[in-house]
Known about the structure:
The protein is α/β, with parallel strands linked by helices. 41% of the residues lie in helices and 16% in strands. It has six helices and four strands.
Amino acid sequence: xDTIKPVVLIPVYNNGKTIKSVIIKSLSYINTxxxxxxxxxxxxxxxxxxxxxxYNKKIHLIELKKNFGKGFALKAGFKKAYSLGFTHAITLDGxxxxxxxxxxxxxEKIKKNxxxxxxxxxxxxxxxGPGLPRYRLSHLSSLFSGHx
Length: 148
């Protein structure tokens, strides 16, 4: 892989109290973020629109009309990332439980081994993924971020 083009995906549902901080901190470590608003009914939607207009080309906002769940929201984010030409996606939760500074750890691992996590292989036409259970992905994420 010649060029690594990473993006952060943040699925959001009613995270109005935390999402602005998560996004702003994340922008300290990465140039582009895709935020997937999963049908929020609180102040999240207005906060996201404000942030998206302030950080214009750095934030791509996907608005789902109703709450479909985190998995659906992430899938929408991965598809958007693929369509925009990103090679890797790092996911963070909008409630602040993941640390934006861990983005650096993931970027370092991706540079050392660009094929460690490669979402395009899962979502590209004809792509196949290993179907890892969620707990294994969480464990792998913990190992990469140093929070095991």
